[in-house]
Design goal:
By secondary structure, the chain is an all-beta fold. The chain has no helices and 11 strands. The relative contact order is 0.31.
Length: 127
């Protein structure tokens, strides 16, 4: 069974950095795009960043633009989220997601546009 497995979350002070990874395990996943979402306690899940698997186009939420960088390693079938200049408001559970069907718009910023999800990894930024 194909799964997305996130890692790299943790506790960091404001201004610090973390790098999240999202690896495909249990098989091959042909993705058209992959993305990162996050959900803070009591809030809706929100879009963070997305990347097209072919070509590598990227798109970011305004709240993270200039601080976060999404990337992928096709050979390792892994996606990354480099998070710099972290703020307490970045505290959330971060989820990676994959879109494996064609015909969707770009950028895909809604959670319903992704059909594979990881289990999430906690990121906590202290002030």
């Amino acid at each position: 069974q194909v799964q997305l497995v996130e890692s790299g979350g943790g506790l960091v002070q404001a201004g610090g950095s973390l790098r999240l990874s999202c690896a495909v395990s249990g098989g091959t996943l042909r993705s058209y795009a992959m993305g990162w979402f996050r959900q803070a306690p009591g809030k809706e899940r929100e879009f963070v960043a997305a990347i097209r698997w072919s070509g590598g186009s990227t798109y970011y939420a305004d709240s993270v633009k200039g601080r976060f960088t999404i990337s992928r390693d096709n050979a390792k079938n892994t996606m990354y989220l480099q998070m710099n200049s972290l703020k307490p408001e970045d505290t959330a559970v971060y989820f990676c997601a994959a879109q494996t069907y064609a015909g969707t718009r770009w950028p895909s910023v809604n959670s319903y546009e992704y059909n594979y999800w990881g289990q999430g990894t906690q990121v906590t930024v202290s002030s």
